[in-house]
């Protein structure tokens, strides 16, 4: 948030909001999203002090998103959470239940799934770091950001395990590591080790770590085990601490690589990073693994979320013989 000249709330309020979210250890992506929706709400109120408005104005803003902007239900929920956070945690006001809000329709769509041959063709068009990351998306069922934010300590190559920390919903889980990724990961670890040693020699070598870890282990953010498995190529200077850090590889690098690979492989279906996770789930069900095991591997809070993959198995309409073929 900035000043009123650029359509944003006054900077003190923006600073308070950012500090409140940082104190509660919200992820950088959540902070960015919340600030965006707070700005949108501020503009909706013609840049006036939000303390002047109550639940009726909030309901009008949320309803407009559904009726006029036709946003998805998940987007509307995110906007609501951001505004509630603003009032509750920044302004110190508790909003009553927003019962009169028009809700966006939640459309249930079947996930897009690639065949095994398509997955093989797509992976075959990738090389280097994107190839390894895409292999983990499909072979371990990782979400895009779960893959990008892996640390050295999160992967147990010998026991073929990946420890996903702070996944969706803030949950940790264990999933399998595909055998074909073991050797490429060992080489990647060696590359990261060399890069980290060079950073240390040049007075850098820090990495962002959770606030609790930083307090308990002040030197953890300069150790190899906490370094990203897939670090960015360039360093940056952290303004508050002055530390020269490395961020993880930006997710768009992998997204663009997967998109190009799908096109080169001639795949006509919509193929994204998340499609590989959908394919992981569906192919495990095809192999006879039970739904509860799959729920644990995917990190779903409710098994009903996992059940959607039973609808895309090759046991539905395509397995039934059409009467036209009996003529």
Question: Strands, helices and their partners?
Answer:
Blueprint lengths: L10 H13 L4 H17 L10 H13 L5 H18 L25 H9 L3 H13 L3 H5 L6 E2 L4 E4 L8 E4 L5 H20 L9 H6 L14 E7 L6 E5 L2 H14 L8 H14 L4 H8 L4 H5 L20
Antiparallel strand pairs: 1-2, 2-3, 4-5
Helix pairs in contact: 2-4, 3-4, 5-10, 6-11
Number of domains: 2
Unreliable stretches (pLDDT < 50, length at least 5) are 2-7
CATH architecture assignment of the largest domain: Orthogonal Bundle
Helical stretch count?
A: 13
Please characterize this protein's 3D structure.
The chain has 327 residues and is mainly alpha-helical. The protein folds into two domains: 4-90, Orthogonal Bundle (DNA polymerase, domain 1); 116-311, Intergrase catalytic core (hpI Integrase, Chain A). It contains 13 helices and five strands. The protein has helices at 11-23, 28-44, 55-67, 73-90, 116-124, 128-140, 144-148, 182-201, 211-216, 251-264, 273-286, 291-298, 303-307; strands at residues 155-156, 161-164, 173-176, 231-237, 244-248. Strands 1-2-3 form a three-stranded antiparallel beta sheet. A two-stranded antiparallel sheet has the order 4-5. Helix 6 packs across helix 11. It is globular, with a radius of gyration of 23 Å.
Concise overview:
By secondary structure, this protein is mainly α. It has 13 helices and five strands. The chain has two domains: about 5-90, Tyrosine recombinase, N-terminal domain (DNA polymerase, domain 1); about 115-310, Intergrase catalytic core (hpI Integrase, Chain A), CATH 1.10.443.
């Amino acid at each position: 948030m900035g000043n009123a000249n650029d359509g944003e709330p006054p900077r003190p309020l923006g600073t308070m909001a950012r500090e409140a979210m940082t104190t509660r250890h919200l992820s950088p992506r959540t902070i960015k999203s919340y600030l965006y929706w707070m700005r949108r709400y501020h503009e909706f109120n013609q840049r006036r002090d939000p303390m002047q408005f109550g639940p009726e104005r909030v309901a009008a803003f949320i309803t407009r998103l559904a009726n006029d902007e036709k946003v998805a239900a998940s987007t509307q929920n995110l906007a609501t959470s951001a505004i509630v956070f603003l009032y509750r945690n920044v302004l110190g006001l508790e909003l009553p239940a927003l019962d009169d809000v028009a809700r966006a329709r939640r459309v249930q769509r079947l996930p897009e799934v690639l065949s095994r041959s398509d997955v093989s063709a797509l992976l075959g068009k990738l090389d280097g770091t994107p190839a390894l990351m895409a292999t983990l998306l499909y072979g371990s069922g990782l979400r895009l950001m779960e893959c990008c934010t892996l640390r050295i300590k999160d992967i147990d190559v010998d026991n073929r395990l990946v420890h996903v920390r702070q996944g969706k919903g803030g949950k940790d889980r264990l999933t399998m590591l595909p055998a074909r990724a073991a050797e490429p990961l060992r080489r990647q670890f060696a590359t990261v080790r060399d890069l980290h040693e060079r950073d240390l020699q040049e007075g850098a070598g820090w990495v962002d770590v959770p606030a609790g870890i930083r307090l308990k282990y002040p030197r953890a953010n300069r150790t190899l085990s906490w370094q990203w498995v897939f670090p960015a190529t360039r360093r940056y200077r952290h303004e508050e601490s002055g530390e020269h850090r490395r961020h993880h590889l930006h997710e768009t690098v992998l997204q663009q690589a997967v998109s190009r690979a799908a096109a080169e492989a001639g795949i006509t279906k919509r193929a994204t990073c998340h499609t590989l996770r959908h394919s992981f789930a569906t192919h495990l069900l095809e192999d006879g693994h039970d739904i509860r095991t799959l729920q644990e591997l995917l990190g779903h809070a409710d098994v009903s979320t996992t059940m959607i993959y039973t609808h895309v198995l090759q046991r539905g309409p395509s397995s039934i013989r059409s009467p036209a073929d009996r003529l």
